[in-house]
Amino acid sequence: MIRRLSQARERGIPEATVARLPLYLRALNGMAERGLATVSSEDLAVAAGVNSAKLRKDLSHLGSYGTRGVGYDVEYLIYQISRELGLTQDWAVAIVGVGNLGRALANYGGFVSRGFRVAALLDADPEVVGDHIAGLTVEHVDELEAVIRRRAVSIVVLATPGAAAQQLADRVIAAGVTSILNFAPVVLAVPEGVDIRKVDLSIELQILAFHEQRKTDRMTGGPAMAEEWPEAVDL
Amino acid sequence: MIRRLSQARERGIPEATVARLPLYLRALNGMAERGLATVSSEDLAVAAGVNSAKLRKDLSHLGSYGTRGVGYDVEYLIYQISRELGLTQDWAVAIVGVGNLGRALANYGGFVSRGFRVAALLDADPEVVGDHIAGLTVEHVDELEAVIRRRAVSIVVLATPGAAAQQLADRVIAAGVTSILNFAPVVLAVPEGVDIRKVDLSIELQILAFHEQRKTDRMTGGPAMAEEWPEAVDL
DNA sequence: CCCACTTTGTGCACCGGTTCACAAAGGGAC
DNA sequence: GTCCCTTTGTGAACCGGTGCACAAAGTGGG
């Protein structure tokens, strides 16, 4: 991949920084609503739950948008971060799978607020097709490719059972989509150039359980040598 | 914090490894269902979507459970990972906030499957309290502390609007809960020793949008020097 | 204009995590 | 028992990201 860019400033923003920009944006929007004109890195960092040095380094990757001795202009910084994240344009999102989760996502206000527009709902169940949810009519998943093209969908949210996810991912990718948010509990195989993000409720709970166990173990005096495969269990 | 453990093997499992163990577990369960007795690090790594060296190093933190020249015993490894994650015990989970998302979570099968049991649903809306969802009756959030104690809840899922989340977090922590899965779009402040995990749909979409913009920019020849605050916008 | 004060932007040391590459260990054939 | 093949477990180099600490830059008061 060629790395030559016309900009003098190299535009390689670290992934970890990108993941935090939405956090800063949210904190800044709260501040703008409360009428603050400027904010220091220290205050913004506290509001976003990070340390101030990290915040300053993150922002420095976008450019030099602060004023020493003063801080950052709230509105200006909101604009710069929004632009960097691509939220100044509007993104058509299709939700595939209109079960409990798909419905929740369709009705979730947080989507619409910032540049995202739910443009289509699709499902395979004839029982569900035709339902009206969040101002949209559920379409049959057979129409997937046509809908993606017609509505200029660029981001697809997969909220289907695990078994269907890979096949659907293949189809949306074939239809030209390169950004997928996957809620199905499977590891999707995708070609180079396609971005997948995964949200897995069950994994999050398991991570919590690990730490919870660790905490209670500590109080009750450790795992009591339970290192071995118990006799009772059958290999 | 005292770091003396009776075990010879130091039990400090890296956070990154903990986050992948559920992935391995899922892949292994699939293999067990298909009747595989043993699996090599290479095959398991492919199924989990990681590289095999990483997989082996991850598993080595749990102990030396493989056989050189052969691979890992599927059932045995399932047991070891489950035990490490604390899934051999059952965890009572309370879901606070029974809106669209809370309902979806309550009905989500993936919870129950592995050691987790939804033990309570709570909401502030009198309209919702008393509803029967997934075999449970929604209780009023005033009962929060009593319910946590009575049902021995150790993990709380917050699926409320952002405005209510911090206050509710404070209450569940005061009631003795130290593991929280937060879906509300706010940064929660919590004391030392409390584990928070956050799932934020809007942030995931924004990260996708960033990369999507980057990809389309590349095709259309870059951001065309759009570095400056446009004249039209009012500071 | 100059000085004291505030706050940004960043060089640098550090740290956790990833990857490579290989020695060690076990299995199976003969 | 010996040899060859497979696959694990891990030392070591590497890499991205974090946090400290400070110089540079700007503000406001006198």
TrEMBL record, chains A, B:
User: What is any Pfam family matched here?
Assistant: CoA_binding
Looking at the record, the residues that make up the CoA-binding domain are 86-187
Cellular component terms (Gene Ontology): cytoplasm
Instruction: Name the residues that bind NAD(+).
Output: G97, V98, G99, N100, L101, G102
Indicate where this protein resides in the cell: Cytoplasm
Q: Which GO MF terms does the UniProt record name?
A: DNA binding; DNA-binding transcription factor activity
- UniProt key word Oxidoreductase: no
Q: Does the keyword Cell inner membrane apply?
A: no
Q: Which GO terms describe its biological process?
A: negative regulation of DNA-templated transcription; response to redox state
Q: Which residues bind DNA?
A: 23-62
Task: Say where the protein is mainly found.
Answer: cytoplasm
State the InterPro entries in the record: CoA-bd (IPR003781), NAD(P)-bd_dom_sf (IPR036291), Rex_actinobacterial-type (IPR058236), Rex_DNA-bd_C_dom (IPR009718), Tscrpt_rep_Rex (IPR022876), WH-like_DNA-bd_sf (IPR036388), WH_DNA-bd_sf (IPR036390)
Q: What's the domain of life for this entry?
A: Bacteria
Q: Which UniProt keywords apply?
A: Cytoplasm, DNA-binding, NAD, Repressor, Transcription, Transcription regulation
Protein family membership: Belongs to the transcriptional regulatory Rex family.
NCBIfam families (alphabetical): PRK05472.1-3, PRK05472.2-1, PRK05472.2-2, PRK05472.2-3, PRK05472.2-4, PRK05472.2-5
Q: What does this protein do?
A: Modulates transcription in response to changes in cellular NADH/NAD(+) redox state.
Q: What is the official name of this protein in its record? A: Redox-sensing transcriptional repressor Rex
List the source organism: Streptosporangium saharense
Underlying gene: rex
